[in-house]
Amino acid sequence: MLAHLGTRTLAGAVVVAGVVTLTFLLVRLAPGDPVERLLGPTATPAQLEVQRRALGLDRPLAAQYAIWLGRFARGDWGKSIATGRPVRALLGDAVPATLALVGTSLVLSYLLGLAVGAWQSSAGPRVDTALSIATVTLFAVPGYWLGRTGCPRSARPGSMPTRSRAGAAWPTGCATSRCRSPPSR
């Protein structure tokens, strides 16, 4: 039992290390220069070089990976390019809304699941089959699609925990015309 647990833990660690390494490499090897995108087209070559040095992008890829991995392991996740705030602080700010959404979705899914299960147990075979098909279909639908169809509700200010906590700094919804919030007057 312990040998199996050790083997599974080691396999999980190898998968995590592989995903971390692959993510780092894909981000670093993406086309385009991140410093040029950061500073814009009007930056001089000297400004680009200073920023590359400041970000450590002038070092070999292996050195960049070792430095990044060490900082990540110490909890130094850097600063947001958009806000200048530490990434850990930004993630910490998102925890209450995330927990509220996860908790609400768990409670609602359990209540709905119990209600549908109770209904199925006392219903006839046609209702049982219809509910089985409906639940399996909804379970198979990707979460992003279900979220996209729920977009009009989430676009109303204050209707979702993330919208009411984030304020006006966040976009108001998806890009389709039926999901956009009405213009403010």
Topology diagram in text:
Layout lengths: L1 H27 L5 H6 L5 H11 L5 H14 L12 H36 L2 H16 L2 H7 L1 H4 L6 H6 L19
Describe the protein's architecture and organization.
With 185 residues, this protein is an all-alpha fold. Helix content is 69%, strand content 0%. The chain has helices spanning 2-28, 34-39, 45-55, 61-74, 87-122, 125-140, 143-149, 151-154, 161-166. Helix 5 packs antiparallel against helix 6. It is elongated, with a radius of gyration of 24 Å. The model is unreliable at 168-183 (pLDDT under 50).
Largest sheet: none
Share of β-strand residues: under 5%
Structural class: mainly alpha
Runs with pLDDT <50, length 5+? 168-183
Mean pLDDT: 82
The helix content, as a percent range, equals 55-70%
Alpha-carbon Rg, integer: 24 Å
Q: Given the C-alpha coordinates, what overall shape results?
A: elongated
The termini sit apart by: 66 Å
Domain count, please report it: 2
The beta-strand count equals: 0
What's the total helix number? 9
Q: Provide the succession of SSEs.
A: HHHHHHHHH
